[in-house]
Structure formats: C-alpha cells, structure tokens
Specification:
Elements lengths: L1 H4 L30 H14 L3 H14 L4 H15 L1 H13 L4 H13 L1 H20 L5
Length: 142
C-alpha cells in the first residue's frame, strides 16, 4: 500500500497528480539511443536485479528442485521455462521484424501503456507472487 501511495506523480492519472508537474521522460524511452551491446548488458542486468524477477526464478527453481525429475526432464523443463520467460521480449521483436511498419504503432502504444502503469504492474506481480509463497508456506497449494 505504501508503494502505491508513494508512486511517482508521472505514474498517476492526470487528475490524481498533486504536484501539477508534467511527467518526466519515461524509463523505456531512455533506452532508445543505446546500441546493441549496451542493451544486452542492461537486459542481463535487469534480468538479475529487477525485484519481480528474482522471486519468480527462486519459486521456479524451488519447484523444479523438489519435483524429483530426471536430468533429461529437468533440462527440458528449464529450457521450456526459459523460452516461456523470454516471450515478452521475443514476441514483440518477431512482430517488429515480420510486421514492419504495420505493427509499429501498436507496439509504441503498448510501450506507452507499460511505461504509464509500471508501478502498478510491479505491485500486482509482487502481490501475486507473495500469495503463491504464502500458499506454499501454509501448504495450501497441493
């Protein structure tokens, strides 16, 4: 709740702003001028550092470790997990390559929506993961 009420004014709807300030340049728009290698380094860093990624990876690793899978099944499962985890990057990339100019506007609109609601998205993901951990801790998930 504190995170929600303390979120930046640029993440609030226009009628909810208390400071009257214009929204600052979005986080994602700062990436526009970076090269391939810089984007790869930032992507790797975000995959490791972003707060919502670590609990999800720990939860998946814990489930896989306790599943009692053979080595072959474990490798296949990890590859599938990695493939599914990367779909949020791969799908827009492939759509951009294949669709060209036709998908440019929808991708920019989706990006603007994500930038506008980044705090709410992170908060919802963390609440869901928290309930999953709570359910597992109380043995309600089995």
């Amino acid at each position: 709740m504190v995170t929600w009420t303390k979120r930046p004014a640029s993440d609030r709807p226009a009628d909810d702003r208390t400071d009257g300030a214009e929204p600052k340049r979005g986080v994602l728009s700062r990436l526009d001028d970076f090269g391939v290698w810089t984007c790869l380094a930032i992507g790797f860093g975000e995959g490791v550092v972003i707060i919502k990624n670590l609990p999800l990876a720990i939860s998946a690793g814990t489930r896989l470790g306790s599943a009692g899978l053979s080595s072959t099944h474990l490798v296949v499962t990890v590859v599938l997990f990695a493939a599914l985890s990367s779909t949020t990057v791969v799908i827009p990339l492939v759509a951009s390559i294949v669709g060209g100019d036709r998908v440019e506007r929808p991708l920019y609109d989706a990006r603007a929506w994500i930038e506008k609601h980044m705090t709410a998205i992170t908060l919802v993901v963390l609440v869901v993961v928290g309930f999953i951990f709570l359910g597992e801790g109380l043995d309600l998930a089995d």
